[in-house]
Every structure is written in structure tokens, then in C-alpha cells.
């Protein structure tokens, strides 16, 4: 068998493993595996630096299947190149209950998968984050003679990926940053779920990517292995620009009655068409899931080369450790997600202060202190640093060394190149979300992304994926209520808090003052098994006197009693975030009126719900049925905490444009109104009580 | 005063009205009004076809301030050109409680405003929708000699707009559709909130828009009125391509210490800088809100020309009516949002059927019938017509007459040009949302946008704006639960139902069978004061026998009793959507076991919450505290309906990839499990009862 025959045999092995898996499941997408198998084959067997025996090798190349619907292609590649986890049985159980081969790749389920994809365009953003990660680690840790970090990030994308807005944002950002080791193979089969792209998509993608500053190449025949290789060589040689290789393919290649049509996209070919396709491509009809020994042996060469490559890297890293033991330790620590010992020893404590500070401002102080001790903390905002206060002072801006920005204005760090830790995402919230996810996927980072709470809507699809994949991402959302004021309803979040709480695996924390904000960041950094959202105020809130009120680390339990000395409360007042100061103020007034109120700060529903029933009952004793929650967000869901006899002070309509204090007052968020609602709940009118 | 002096006086009048408004509010964005006043002046006084005396003239040009933060510029223009609503007092009350001049433009509040903007990029998508609307109405209603519809859609956009993904999607779509009467003035001041665009945004925007097929022009000096005019002339002359005019400006033009810097972007200039700016531009320091009589008189010429233009149009329309009275009536009816008499007389009724059909499929049948009688119903999906079943048969595809697509595959209509009513949005959910909003803003349409429920996340910012602006938009989301099955967690909505219910002004309807789906479409078309979301199944659900169960139009009240003959229930089972059949099935089993269960279908929380307390109590009698809700979505919020002694069968984790029936079973969505949970709630184990 000559080389070319072996190539074809191997490519068809990929193709028919995928086709058979889809057919057996009677569900899935056969079209792209058939057409993209050649480029995937070339990439995986000739270029991709990976060692199937160790999917966690930190300097492996990353491969992202942005077109997650072609999962069967990826599973075939993983199986054939020898990833232990991906057995043939798993391929036979494609899309079945508890298999490692779900309909779209899931990284938390199948460990040799780099990223959970499927929602289109996300993988492009993930890959940009991974490439940022590689560039940063290389800039920070490599030393003359030691390239501890030197890997590419490859993406396989589809027409659908290239239509999505998140992709457009990510590609613009990657071009700006000059991420030369990012290489996208764009499988341009010009067919989507509902027909050919001529119906919807006639732009000049090549020209668009050139406008972003990418290196653009075309391969006119997706079966031309030599052309694909040449393009990959040229892409790898261009270290200054990200590359996209537009590969023209025919969807469902080889399926005689369906190739080139949308019918090959998202449904099994059918028994007859599978038969015909196998016949046309010279493949035995039986058995299914055939892996010819020659092909398998050929694929397994990847394992040998991978083992050799990783061994060489290991030797280099051992030598590196001898010279730079601190750096080597730091690298290992980062990838093991162990925080530095004593990282939070000098976080600021905030003295009691009736005027107080905005929690976004307290967050800034905590963030600065944290950034000094936790180098893996990197992040940025969607062009809002002067408002979110998330710029890490003295940590530099992440920017292309070839395109240092003028640094004359705003919050810019200047001349750090890729070693900078402040990532300026631009007005590109969705790409920010996907790129932050990519940094987590890459490993070695605790990344954050920041914007106004209301604009979490722009990046919600990425946030959801951080929760599905249980990524250690931190979302920082400021300007968290109608108290935003003048900017009006388009900028005032109402339902976002609830909408974020609605995402499974997400922890939402809305700290009530500066010291709770400190604890919130501690919880955020310590969390290992999923994303966490910090919700912060624009406006000042009083810093509680913790000599009077319970310690702020009660936040860790989701809800805690601020005045535990009141053991026989008539009513429980529950506040979150900026509304904690309202319930605290109301308690004081009520006390003067002889009403005994318990005050509870409830920064996190999720953390409190995870506590024992005993603890929950100790905070919210069942015997106290008069309960009032105060939160400048939707009422939905508060019934769970205030119970059937409770009351909910909430915002169930959109906001308004006026000074923040005016809006809060008009919407009932004043101590007076909290007092009045509390008294009404107790059946005491204010007049009765004060008389 | 010569012409040039009058121009400058007028431009400075705009500038300083805006600057004074921001300064008086001590909040807002002075930078863009200063730099964009010249282009806005040229557009509004020389090109924009509008009659300030009648902001509702249907053939006016539309103007969208996509950069909503420059609202003070828009308010100044509206005031100066004579819109009655926009008094000087309103400008003086900029950003104050209950003024018509909120921080960002709000169309539902200020009627002479075309679109609610502020969240960046949305206005671009709205404008694409408006231009689609104009093209469609012109194609449908214009006749030789009668151009009833012939207007432009203008956009003023900022750097931030041009960075957003929704903009990228919208621009690609507009280029594909060849929307020649869409003209964007891009105020390229190269400064955003946090600094210069060199930090984040160095792509070649002109080349990018060329790649989309747009006509791209540059004006190198934003103060060059002649150049702006020439560019607008050329843009208007190009009827085959949308146009973007990239106007280089200096942010905060004229403010000596702040111009060209991010400090001019989002904060008042300050008293001193206002003083200096006025001095530099030769403007009297006092009084503020100065409108020189010469300038005012000049601006008021717009009113005269506008009145003449509208009068000419009125005469033409009267003549049109004589020849085409049916069409004229139809146009008036559409813009008055009156549905055609008897529009729903022949909607399908679905016979009882134990196997049933998917509600997306029932929806398709209702939609086809509706499309025949309601010509203003237009819409499309994000490349999912074969799955959402929202393609209107026989109503043609909306496509550029110059670029008819090949129409060989999928669901395509062919050769209707702009008269087609199926809009193929492509894999561009966010732009779809913004464009659907734009169709409502334009008037004359009841538009819908469709995708999978899980991908509502991609377009959430646009959905929110439909709710803020109370737009009559219909969102159709199919594949509504874990029953999606094989595609796995990335494609299985869990929290989306709750997240949509969380949006104020939104009505979410999740019909339980085919006949409820019919009623749901009736409610959707009849709703006039806000958006409505239809949530539909992928899988079959039984069609209830309405001779046995209550009529499906109970849906109109949000929740209703399916078996009202059971007057003394021990327990209430509440289901929504596909889970209605589970509670119906469980009731049958329980009845056999001697347990009296009431069965409630609750397709809409919002509609039920809007009913009287009496009606609510008639459906959910307070005396019956054993209540079980069954819905394949989050539990949060169900406490409100099941009460403190109730139980909630829900999905509080992400889904899984397996056949849909398997996933439903594993997650507890079976009749058996509903029965078991019901018995447990009543304190009866299944065994006890059946023995």
C-alpha cells in the first residue's frame, strides 16, 4: 500500500466510523465528517502536537471543534489516534445515555476534549482565549533556550460558525492582538441546516478576515491533502497574524444522493445511502465501525511521535526547573489550580463607614491586592474598565508586541506585550465571554470578564457554556440595579440577577458591603467546579460596622444573620447587595418602635440552598413567618425564602432615567418604605406603632 | 449672515443644546454630540424626509440613533426641527424623573423617537429591519406611477456600535439582501469609554463593509459639510447596496482640554470646560439652552418642507386609493394594527389524538392558515426553518431581486424579490432579534423570529429591548426542553423558560397541545402592547380530547382547570407544555386509585397573574394545599403557584445526550413518577394506595 492509498484508507476510516456512529444512533450530522475528514486527518496526523497517552500535557496543541455538531468526526479522530478514554464501544454508543460520546462534545464529560461546543461560533471565541493564554504564558515563562510554552491553537469551523456575531467579535479581537499561533480551518461546504448559503450568506469571508488583519488562504479542493499541508505550513510560519484557511468542500462527500445538499447536514444518511456511500468510496459494507489494521497502525504512529515529543518537553522542563525553580513551581501550581499559600493574607479590611463605598470600588481594592499574589488572575472588561474598576494596576496590558497601543489615555499599561494581564476585549461582550472560557479550557488561569450587569445579556450564551462545562470563570457585573439612574431602563438591570441565578452550576454573589465584597472574591478564587458571578453596585453603600454586626464571612454560607443577638424576632428582613443597608436601617427604626427584627444578608441563593436544613432553619426559623425580602430585582423566586406569609419588595417593571437616588425612592427602596412594609406585614400600621 | 455662517450657527446651536443639557443634568455624553452635530445637521435639514408635525407619517424616512448615548444630540435635533413633544423644557429636564428626555432614547416614552437604543449595535439591527420593511411594503404595494412607500433608513452609529457582534450579523445580512436604501453614517471618532480605539479596535472597517457587499465611502473631516452632502448623495443614488459613510471626527470637538480623549465621552465637560468650549466656538456663555432666532428660523424650514412633502404624498395616496382601494385599505389597516376581520375564522381545530403532534408542528398548521389572511405577518428563523416549521408556504422568500438564490433546496420560495414574506436571517440570531424589532418600529408588520429555545440566549439583548419598547414582536422558540434528546445539554434548554418569564412586559406561552397552540397564536396576534414568546416542543404530545377536557381557549387566562367536574380535589396537578399530558395521564391513574386530582394547564404565568384573585382562587383553591407542578424547566418561581405545602417536579441541572424519551424518563418526567410524587405529597405511598 503506497502512501496515498494509506492516506485514503485512513481518511475513509475516519469517515465511516462517523457515518456508522450516526447511523447506529439514528441521529447526528454525517455531512461534515464526510467532507472534513481529509483536513482533519492531515492536521491530526501531521501537525497536531499531542500525546494521546497524556491529554493533560500542558504544552500540547489545542484543537477546538467549533462546529460541535461534527462531534462524530472528533470522536473518530480521538479513537483512532489512541486516546484510551475513547474506545470503540463509546463510538458505538454515540448519543446514548451516559456515553462519553454525546451529541456535541462535552469537555467536562470526556476529558480528552478541549472545549464544549455546539452552539455555533463559541469555539472560535474559546480558541481566541486559548491563543491568548498560550501567548501570555510564553511571554511570562519562556526564557532564552527554554520554550516551555510553544503550541498552536487549531480550530475546525463551519459556515454556521462564521456567520455568528460572537465569531465576528472574536476574529476582530484576534486580528487586533496578532495571535499568530491561532489557525482556523474553515470547512466551507456552503450548506447549512436549511439549504445552501446562497440563501443567506454571500459575503466575501476571505476579504472580511483580511480586514481584521488575518492571514487568509484558500484551498479549492478539500480532498487535496498536499494543498492543505502547504496552507498549514504557511499558516504556522506566519507568527504575526492569526490564520484562516478556507477549504472548499462538498458536504456529505461520497454520499451519491445527498452530497452537496442540506439533507446531508443534520440527519443520518439512512441505511441505503450508507450502503451506496461505502460502495462509492470502495469501503466494505460490513462490518460497521471497521478499522482496518493498516489504518490503525498508521494512526498509532501519532502516539509514538506524541510520546517522544512530550518526553523531549519533559526533559526541557526538568532543565528549566534547575535554572528557574520558582517559575517551574509556579507553572505547576497554576495548572494544578492550587492557589498560592497565603494569597489572601493581605486583602483589605474595610473600616465601618456610614457613607461607605460602591462595591465595585471595594472590589477594585480587593482585586488589586489579589492580582499581586495570584499571577494566574487575568482578565478585562468590554471597554468599561473606568466604570467596572477591574483594571489590574501594575500588571500591564495584554497587547501585540508588534502593535503597542499609544497608551496615552484611560487605563492602559503600555509595552508589556503578551506578558500583560489586562485584556482589553473592546465592545465585544460575547467574544469576551467565549475567550474567558477559552482561558479556563487552556489551563493555568483564573480569568475574569467584566461588564455592566445589564449587558450580561450580550454574553449569555457564553456564560451558559461556562456553567455546562463547569469552568472556573469569574464574571464581574457592576451597575447592578435601577440605582444606575440617569442612563435609564436600557442600562438598568431588572431581570438579569434572576436570569443568572437560573443557570445551573452558577453561583451568583451579590455582596452587601465592602467587607462582603472581599469575602466574595475569596469565594470566587476558591471555587473550583464552576463559574461564579459577582454582582456589584455602581453607587456607594455603607460599610457595616462589624463590631456591631456579624462578620462578613457569613457570606460563605449564602445567607447569615447580621444581628444574631436578637433571638426572638417578630419579623425577618432579608436584603441583598445594596439593599442590605436598607434592611439594616429599617431594623434600627423598628427597634426604636419596639419591633424586634432579625436582619439577614443573603448574598447568594445558591450557597444558602447548599447549606444544611439545620443551618437554613437557624437563619430563617420556620416559626417566624413574617419575612420581608428587599432586593432591587424581580420578585420571582423570593417566595422560596419569604414563605407564604411573607412580602417581597422588588422591581417587577423596567427602570427609569433619573438620578439613581430618585429612581430608588420612586421604586420604594427607602428605609421608610421598608419599615412601612414590615409594619404592614405585622399588621401594625406605622401610625399605630409610632403613636 | 451668509449660508456658511448660518450653517455654523445652526450646528453650534445643536451642539450647545446638547452640552448644556448634559451639564445641567450633570450626567450624560457630550463628546459625540459635539463631533457629530455637522453630519446630523446636514442629514436632518437637507435630506431627511420627515414632517415634524406628523411623526407617524408612514412614508417618512427613518432615523435611528444607534449610538443611543448621544441622545442629547437627537433631542436637540427634534426640538430644533419643531417636534411639538420635544419642548425646550424637556431638554432642560434631560435625564430627570418622568421627562421625555431619558438618558438613552426610548420610543415608547417619546413618540417622535424611532427606536429605543443605547445597548450598542442594536440600532444597526433595527435599521436593517426597517429597511427590510420598506423594501417589502414598496414591493407589495407600489404600482406604476404610485410610490406609496419610498423612504430611506438612516443610522448614526459610533465606534462601539461597529464593534458589536449584532452589528456584524446585521451588516452581513443587509449586504446579502442588497438593502440599497439603508444608509449608515459612522461617526468614527476613534474613542470609546475607556480610551482610544487603538487599544482594541484596529481592523479595517471599510474593507469589512466592502466584504459584506456595502457601498463604502469616507469623509476625512467631520466638519466638511459639502463632503458629507456629496457622500449622502452618492449613497442615495446607489439603490443596490446599503451604504456606510465613515466620517472621521474628533470626539468632543471644540472642548479645548478634552477633545480627542475618552474624558469627553461619557461625562459632562464640567462648568469650566463648557465655558472654554463656548468661547472657542464663539458661542455666548450665557444663557444656557440658547437657540438664536436665525438658527431656529432656519431649522423651521424643515417643517415647511416636511408639510409640503407629506401633503404631496397624501394627494398621491388619495389617487392611489381611487385605483387600488383594497390595497389602500390594507395599508391603513396594517399601520393601525387592526387585524383583518375574521382572520382566525378558519384556523385548524385538531381532533383528539393519543399519539398527537409536536406543538411546533401544530404551530406550523396555524401559522400557514394565519399567513393567508394576515399579510402583515412576516418572519423567519435563524437558519432553522426545517426544524422550527415557521416557513410560510406560498408566501415567497424575501430576497434581493438582484440576487435570487438558487432555490434548489430546503424551504425556499424563489423569485419573489422583496415581496416575499419569509426572511432568511441565517445563523444570525441576534441580528434576527434586532431586525424583527426594527420591523415593528417601522410599522405595518406583525413580525416573528424563530429559533431553538436554547438559542434565545444569543438574542436576549434584542428580546429585552422588544419588552422595554413594548413592541408587538412574536418570538417562536421550539425544541423547548431536555426532550430534545440526542443533541445534548448544549441544545437542551433548562433555564431559558424562567429567564424569559423574568423579562418585564413579556408574555411567555407554553401551550400544552395542538389546540392550545392554536389559541396561543390567537393571543400572540391579538396582543398589542408588548412582545410574546411561544415555547414549543420538538416531540409529539397528545392532542387532548376536548369533549372530555375543558376548551383550549382557557389558555387565554394563563391557567385553567382541564377537569372542572372534579369539584372536591385532594390534590392539584399543574402542567405546562409537553408536561400537560403527564399530569393528565397521572390524573387518570390516580382516579383509578381513588384519588381525586384536579388537572390544571398553566401555559402562561403572566396571563394567570394578570387575572383576578377570584379567578386565580377558582383554579387554585387555597383550601387545596397539596399541589404538584410538572414542568421540564427550573423550579425557581414555582413556589408561588404550588404554595408552601406543594411539590415541584422540575429540572435543576443541565440535560444529557440520549434519545429524548430516555432523558425525560431519567429526569423523572413519566406518568409513573408524577403519580408517585402526588401520592407522596398526600402522604400515601403508591403501595399503600394500590393495595
Topology summary:
The structure is a homodimer of 691-residue chains.
Chain A: H1 3-25, H2 31-47, E1 62-65, H3 71-80, H4 88-92, H5 122-141, E2 153-158, H6 159-163, H7 165-177, E3 182-188, E4 191-192, E5 195-196, H8 205-211, E6 215-219, H9 225-237, E7 243-248, H10 271-280, H11 293-323, H12 325-335, E8 353-358, H13 359-373, E9 377-381, H14 385-388, E10 397-398, E11 422-423, H15 429-442, E12 446-452, H16 460-468, E13 474-478, H17 496-501, E14 507-509, H18 514-526, E15 532-535, E16 540-543, E17 560-561, E18 571-575, H19 580-592, E19 597-601, H20 605-609, H21 613-619, E20 627-630, H22 639-642, E21 647-649, H23 660-666, H24 671-681, H25 686-690
Parallel strand pairs in A: 1-2, 2-3, 3-7, 6-7, 9-12, 10-11, 12-13, 13-15, 14-15, 18-19, 18-20, 20-21
Antiparallel strand pairs in A: 4-5, 8-16, 17-19
Helix pairs in contact in A: 1-2, 1-3, 1-11, 2-3, 2-9, 5-7, 5-15, 7-15, 11-12, 13-18, 15-16, 19-24
Provide a descriptive summary of the structure in words.
Chain A has a five-stranded parallel beta sheet, sandwiched between helices. A five-stranded parallel beta sheet of chain A has the order 9-12-13-15-14, with helices on both faces. Helix content of chain A is 40%, strand content 13%. The model of chain A has no long low-confidence stretch (mean pLDDT 96). In chain A, helix 19 links the parallel strand 18 and strand 19. Chain A folds into three domains: 305 residues, Thiamin diphosphate (ThDP)-binding fold, Pyr/PP domains (Rossmann fold, 3-Layer(aba) Sandwich), CATH 3.40.50; 190 residues, Thiamin diphosphate (ThDP)-binding fold, Pyr/PP domains (Rossmann fold, 3-Layer(aba) Sandwich); 124 residues, Rossmann fold, CATH 3.40.50.920. In chain A, helix 1 crosses helix 11, helix 13 crosses helix 18 and helix 19 crosses helix 24. Chain A has 691 residues and is of the alpha/beta class. Chain A contains 25 helices and 21 strands. At the A-B interface, helix 6, helix 7, strand 4, strand 5 and helix 8 of A face helix 6, helix 7, strand 4, strand 5 and helix 8 of B.
